[in-house]
Specification:
Layout: H1 18-50, H2 55-59, H3 67-72, E1 78-80, E2 86-92, H4 97-111, E3 119-125, H5 132-146, H6 150-159, H7 167-174, H8 179-188, H9 192-205, E4 212-215, E5 218-221, H10 226-239
Parallel strand pairs: 2-3
Antiparallel strand pairs: 1-3, 2-4, 4-5
Length: about 240
């Protein structure tokens, strides 16, 4: 027999052995799960920050949001001093005359040199869900808010004597909005989830109709007199 007949067969590489193949499969699955988990956490974090999903919806009622988040919402429009000692929440139906009266009252407070530095108003949606015009008005307001024209659009809508679906595009242009961007936002209804979230928070807090002010955790339906709002601010300042 030749010398080559006594040579040992060449040993297989580790990655073709059964344990090597198993190791490769295990490592591949581990990294796939790690990447998928990271993507999921990033996506859910972004949705939580934007308000597209609530902690209750993601984790269950056991992890309910704080009272402040339910009251103030996520990235809600505000008017006043960001560092003001007093905060008031106003739930509005942007298609109603009564809510327009509330905006007038708030503006009067803001014209007062003293009170404008003492209070921060937070505006939230509470439309009539049975009225398509009411929902459309909230959508128009949200699209204006994206272009930092919330108050211009709100005042324009409330000043319109006979608001209709056809009014919003014209009022958006008059309020200084980019018309193409506004139309894209408005037609897509991309902010409907924010309006729905505000409505659900309002119901949870006990809001039943618009307009409603929440002053120091007290619900005040309708539009309070300007002097009554000032008195409430004074009282809250004393309690601070």
């Amino acid at each position: 027999m030749t010398e080559s007949a006594f040579k040992k067969p060449r040993e297989k590489k580790w990655y073709v052995k059964w344990w090597g193949v198993s190791l490769i499969v295990f490592v591949g699955l581990f990294f796939s799960l790690a990447v998928a988990s990271a993507i999921f956490m990033f996506t859910m974090s972004a949705k939580l920050k934007s308000g597209a999903i609530s902690p209750e919806e993601l984790f269950g009622k056991k992890y309910a949001v704080s009272h402040n988040e339910t009251l103030y919402g996520v990235n809600s429009p505000t008017l006043g001093s960001a560092g003001a000692p007093v905060s008031m929440v106003v739930f509005l139906d942007f298609s109603s005359i009564q809510s327009g009266d509330s905006m007038v009252a708030v503006n009067k407070i803001m014209y007062d040199e003293y009170y404008k530095n003492q209070v921060n108003f937070i505006f939230r949606h509470f439309p009539n869900i049975a009225d398509p015009l009411s929902i459309a008005a909230s959508l128009a307001i949200e699209c204006a808010y994206e272009q930092e024209r919330f108050f211009e659009m709100a005042n324009a809508i409330f000043s319109e004597p006979d608001i209709s679906q056809a009014s919003f595009s014209r009022l958006a242009s008059a309020s200084g909005l980019d018309k193409v961007e506004f139309e894209s936002c408005f037609q897509s209804q991309q902010n409907l989830f924010r309006i729905d979230r505000d409505g659900k928070d309002g119901q949870y807090l006990g809001v039943k109709a618009s307009p409603t002010f929440i002053i120091n955790d007290k619900i005040v339906e309708g539009t309070p007199r300007v002097e009554d709002i000032k008195k409430a601010i004074d009282l809250m300042l004393i309690e601070k």
